[in-house]
Amino acid sequence: MVLEASLSNSTVIVVSDTNIKNDIATSILHVHIANQLLIKTLYYAVLVTTTEAKLFAIRCGINQICSKDNVSKIVVVTDSIHAAKKIFDSISHPYQGQAMAILSNLHQFFIRNQSNSIEFWECPS
């Protein structure tokens, strides 16, 4: 599936991974389009939960992609699908700030073209 998606010039693959060790979260984000690395970013945060760090990494990837005009499909690959589900959870939770920022970016992405799409794929560590 990734190989097929990576052949398209309008499909972006966002791969994020986060790890916490000694209260320091390390998030790495790879963004690929047409099988080429577009962006590689490394983030560090202190005293955050794993879910917060994972949502932040997803948020940064989506934020960077939504500014690209030629993108019509986003595929987010994460080892934490439970964190990604928090984005679309309308019940009050401690991650609503991150979720609202992600949804705001996605809103602009879908306004640009209603046939745009996003998928979340789980890839266990």
Helix-strand blueprint:
Elements lengths: L1 H5 L4 E11 L2 E10 L2 E11 L3 H17 L6 E6 L2 H6 L9 H17 L4 E6 L3
Helix pairs in contact: 2-4
What is the helix/strand order?
HEEEHEHHE
Count the domains.
Answer: 1
Q: Helix count?
A: 4
What CATH architecture would you give? 2-Layer Sandwich
Instruction: Determine and state the CATH class.
Output: Alpha Beta
Quaternary status: single chain
Structural class: alpha/beta
Strand content: 35-45%
Percent helix, as a range, is: 25-40%
Spatial arrangement of strands, main beta sheet: 3-2-1-4-5
Describe the protein:
The chain has 125 residues and is an alpha/beta fold. It has one domain: Ribonuclease H-like superfamily/Ribonuclease H (Nucleotidyltransferase, domain 5). The chain has four helices and five strands; from the N terminus they run αβββαβααβ. The chain has helices spanning 2-6, 50-66, 81-86, 96-112; strands spanning 11-21, 24-33, 36-46, 73-78, 117-122. It has a five-stranded mixed beta sheet with strand order 3-2-1-4-5. Strand 1 and strand 2 form a beta hairpin. Helix 2 (50-66) packs parallel to helix 4. The longest helix has 17 residues, at 50-66. The radius of gyration is 14 Å and the shape is globular. It starts with a helix and ends with a strand. 31% of the residues are buried. The model has no long low-confidence stretch (mean pLDDT 84).
